Amino acid sequence: xxxxxxxxxxxxxxxxxxxxxxxxxxxxxxxxxxxxxxxxxxxxxxxxxxxxxxxxxxxxxxxxxxxxxxxxxxxxxxxxxxxxxxxxxxx
Length: 91
Prior knowledge:
Number of domains: 2
Order of helices and strands: EEHH
Number of strands: 2
Strand content: 5-15%
Radius of gyration: 23 Å
Number of helices: 2
Strand order of the largest sheet: 1-2
Helix content: 40-55%
């Protein structure tokens, strides 16, 4: 069974794999694209900025980046602990 999407402009059914309506040419997934762009424009402020691993990286490079990520996570953990202790001391 294939997926279908109703065109927001002409209301005709199209194959869900199409980007534009085959009848009127309107964009089928405009709302979904706008929501995705808005989410990507506002990054999560609580996400830890780790070293990015690319799909084209070799095994040795991936291993090295994983070690760097481990060091980053430990660093942020220690920093969080120190901030927590500093916030407890005045009270």
